Fold this protein.
Amino acid sequence: MDIRAYNRRAWDQRVAEGDEWTVPVSTETIRAAQQGEWKIFLTRSRSVPPEWFPKIQNADVLCLASGGGQQAPVLAAAGANVTLLDNSPAQLNQDHMVAQRDELTLTIIEGDMSDLSQFPDSSFDLIVNPVSNLFIAHVQPLWDECFRVLRRGGVLMAGFMNPAFYIFDRELMDDQGILGVRYELPYSDLVSLNSVKRKAYLQAGWPLEFGHTLEAQIGGQLQAGFLLTGFYEDRDTRCVLDDYMPVYIATRALKP
């Protein structure tokens, strides 16, 4: 199936439902960023450490798969030249709304996070990629493209799921708070679920997810040529697994 087209429709629907990743920041947040007080999130609750950022003023920043009116407007307000690429038109509309409301300049593009061919080599100083690569089947093209479009000394900041999250039966975890190991890694909603669960999942219109291994997530960045210079984990108190381990990972990688 066309995974990108399906997930585009699914995320457009999430915007309509008010998913937390689709709610734009306030004008007050933008005004604070313009005064030098700002933060962004790669994962659910822990903000990116200030020391992870290069100089933001006049930096060329790519907010990758980062629609929803959150990271891109804040970085633009902080003084960066921001390009935003996302698969969901409805998500991008949230950023367009904030840009118009608060008189910000954003370059907004609908596209595939794994295909950055429209950008020349060495186009950006910073790439911000919050938790989103769970919606693509293969992550190595993403890391390779990020490396290509970054300038030397450029930084990639990425958030992603701890793959252990995907070995558990999601229904048992969400509905009964039971951690039942069921699936092997790498995980895919299209392959790992049985036909009955997969049909119900697709009929519900949930975005298709893929649980990538740590070798693909971290080893893939190294394979692309990056040097890892930062790492942290984040939690999600809504998930029973959070009682035992963090479910999110964030990395900072440098193009030497």
